[in-house]
Write a structure and sequence with these properties.
45% of the residues lie in helices and 17% in strands. A 7-stranded parallel β-sheet has the order 3-2-1-4-5-6-7, sandwiched between helices. Strands 10-11-9-8-12-13-14 form a 7-stranded parallel β-sheet.
Length: 407
């Protein structure tokens, strides 16, 4: 496995370097790792006691925030080091004040893993949800660090449980403890001899509850609503936007806010070209602009979505016509009924809300329109669905406390 795995890592890096000539995301991936070891040596204190958190991207970072922040408060003698694999996480969170050091994670070659760990010398390492990097895990164990994974979710169709997954199952044995989201994950792990497991739940519930309880004011969004209902389409891709704009923008009694997953100028221009009413970009808002006179608001900056849901009445969550839906809990915590596309089977919270009646899966613009009309015209049904969503989130908090007590 080692030779094939290492070859795969080098091929991945080579492919990203080629892609960096054509795409901004790949270019950031490469640029962010340039001279990374010198930067580490110049930045990390040699006597620092480090707890290392690793997140694949922005979603995993949000999932781990409550744990990082609680450790920072309870154990101030430790420094928090946070790494990312993806630019979409690092570029948004690079100024996050809840960590002492924030870096891109060097590619998982043997040499990189050894160099990184000899500089950082973490006492504990926490991987958020997934990303089981073999060389990092191997050398963490060799150097005596405690290793954890939090909010992990395992499914029967995962490689770990296939007949050919023996080499991957060995990676799980490096962990001192695995905190999983549900009983099914614990059951699957016990079937392959992994019993150092706790069902802690999903820390995202704690995170969205924390956001809801924080004070903040996006007056420009409230002003844009102008007293009308607000439909928020969050983390959308082109496939989502085509469905939304086909019918939803024609509702004269509803304002539409679109928060694309990708905010590059080309994508934003494409969205604007599909809108029939008056459209306003978030970056074009200034104090005296009469935003209430516009029909559609496009949020062309990152990092606002979880706060924007506070001002919404209905939410559509993007990604369900592609790789998978994005975070539905950010909307559900405010009691927003949620809709999303068909690719949601890997997301436990989606199944939970579908079963309870708080969420709806749609396959085309007609179904989305019908869902919206039903809720818009039946206030009793709306209140029922809204309550289901809010109660579902409130009833699943507490994972952070369980994890902190064990770590």
């Amino acid at each position: 496995m080692n030779i094939l795995y290492d070859a795969g890592i080098y091929l991945m890096v080579f492919g990203i370097r080629i892609a960096s000539l054509f795409t901004r995301k790949a270019a950031l991936w490469v640029k962010g790792r340039r001279n990374i070891f010198q930067y580490l040596r110049d930045t990390v204190g040699i006597y620092d006691r480090i707890i290392w958190f690793h997140a694949a991207s922005l979603g995993e970072f949000e999932q781990g925030r409550t744990v990082m922040e609680q450790i920072r408060v309870r154990y101030p003698e430790y420094k928090i080091l946070l790494t990312f694999f993806s630019p979409s996480g690092y570029e948004v969170a690079k100024n996050y004040r809840g960590a002492d050091y924030i870096f891109y994670l060097p590619a998982d070659t043997k040499l990189n893993a050894k160099r990184f760990l000899k500089i950082v010398k973490p006492e504990k390492a926490v991987f958020i949800k997934y990303e089981f990097w073999a060389n990092y895990l191997r050398y963490l164990r060799r150097y005596g660090a405690e290793i954890y994974v939090i909010s992990a979710l395992f499914r029967r169709d995962s490689t770990f449980f296939k007949w050919y997954g023996g080499r991957y199952r060995k990676l799980l044995k490096y962990f001192d403890w695995l905190f999983v989201q549900d009983e099914n994950s614990k059951y699957l792990l016990s079937g392959i001899g992994i019993n150092n497991v706790s069902v802690s739940g999903d820390t995202r519930f704690d995170r969205v509850a924390e956001i809801k309880n924080k004070d903040f004011d996006l007056h420009v969004v409230e002003k844009f609503g102008g007293g009308k209902k607000i439909f928020i389409a969050g983390s959308t891709w082109k496939e989502d936007e085509e469905i939304i704009l086909e019918k939803i923008q024609n509702h004269s009694d509803i304002k539409l806010i679109i928060v694309p997953h990708e905010v590059n100028s080309e994508h934003i221009s494409w969205i604007c070209s599909k809108i029939e009413g008056r459209v306003l970009k978030y970056t074009d808002i200034y104090p005296d602009i009469p935003s209430e006179n516009y029909d559609v608001l496009i949020v062309d900056v990152m990092g606002l979505l979880s706060k924007l849901y506070r001002y919404g009445d209905f939410a559509y969550i993007g990604g369900g016509f592609g790789a998978g839906i994005h975070n539905i809990l950010e909307a559900a915590v405010y009691g927003l009924p949620v809709a999303f596309g068909p690719n949601h089977s890997k997301f436990k919270e989606a199944g939970g809300l579908l079963c309870k009646g708080g969420a709806t899966c749609i396959t085309d613009s007609t179904e989305l329109y019908q869902w919206l009309e039903l809720l818009k015209n039946d206030s009793n049904l709306y209140e029922e669905v809204s309550g289901i969503c809010a109660d579902y989130v409130a009833g699943n908090t507490g994972a952070t406390k369980t994890i902190i007590e064990k770590i």
